[in-house]
Design brief:
Blueprint lengths: L2 E2 L9 E2 L12 H11 L7 E4 L6 H8 L4 E6 L2 H13 L6 E5 L2 H6 L6 E6 L7 H11 L4 E11 L12 E9 L2 E8 L2
Parallel strand pairs: 3-4, 3-6, 4-5, 6-7
Antiparallel strand pairs: 1-2, 7-9, 8-9
Length: 185
C-alpha cells in the first residue's frame, strides 16, 4: 500500500513507510473521512500526532492548513521516517518530531496547547485508554475547544469515565473506529 498526501498543498506527495510491521498506516478512505468531518477546523490549528508512525495524519493536517504539528514516537525508525516525510513535503518549519514515551510526555506539564491530539497507538494493548486518561488528567495540553481523536480497532472500544473530556462522536470504517472526545466546557 503506498502512502500519500490526499489533499492540500502537498497533495499527491508519496510518504515513506516505516520498515517492518511496527506501524499500521491509516487507509486513505479513513484519512479522507476524518478530514471531511473536521473540515475548516484544521486551518491554523495545532496538532499532536502522539503515536506518529509515518506521520501521515499530521502531515495531512499540515497539507490542509494546520499551523503546527508535534509528532512523537517511541522508536527511532518511525521518528526518522516522520522527519524524512515532513521534509519531503516541505513542512520542516511547521513541525517538531520528538522521540520519547507518549505516556511520559502526556504526564509532563503542558508546554504547548493543541486543538487536536491524535491517538492511534499499537493495537490491542489498551494504550489508547491510558493515553486518553492522561489527557483527561492533564487537560492543559488541549485548548478550551480542543478535541482528542482516537483511532482503534472497533473490538478495542470501551466506554471510559472521564471528567474533562466527553465522547461526542464515533465513525466506523471497516476495521477502523474513530472516536472524538471534546473538552468539556
Amino acid at each position: 500500500m503506498s502512502l500519500r498526501v490526499i489533499a492540500g498543498s502537498a497533495r499527491g506527495r508519496k510518504l515513506k513507510s516505516v520498515p517492518g510491521d511496527t506501524t499500521r498506516p491509516v487507509m486513505d478512505r479513513v484519512k479522507e473521512a476524518l478530514f471531511n468531518i473536521l473540515a475548516g477546523d484544521v486551518v491554523d490549528s495545532n496538532w499532536w500526532d502522539l503515536f506518529g508512525g509515518t506521520g501521515a495524519i499530521g502531515i495531512e493536517a499540515l497539507s490542509r492548513g494546520a499551523a503546527f504539528v508535534s509528532f512523537s514516537d517511541l522508536n527511532r525508525t518511525p521518528v526518522d521516517t516522520i522527519k524524512e516525510n515532513v521534509e519531503h513535503c516541505g513542512f520542516g518549519k511547521q513541525a517538531e518530531v520528538r522521540k520519547g514515551d507518549a505516556f511520559s510526555m502526556l504526564g509532563a506539564q503542558a508546554d504547548r496547547r493543541f486543538e487536536f491530539i491524535y491517538i492511534a497507538p499499537p493495537q490491542y494493548q489498551e494504550m489508547w485508554v491510558k493515553a486518553l486518561k492522561l489527557v483527561n488528567e492533564n487537560i492543559d495540553w488541549l485548548t478550551d475547544a480542543g478535541t482528542v481523536i482516537v483511532q482503534i480497532d472497533p473490538t478495542e472500544y470501551q466506554e471510559i469515565e472521564l471528567k474533562n473530556l466527553e465522547e461526542t462522536e464515533q465513525r466506523k470504517y471497516g476495521s477502523t473506529l474513530i472516536i472524538f472526545y471534546d473538552r468539556v466546557k
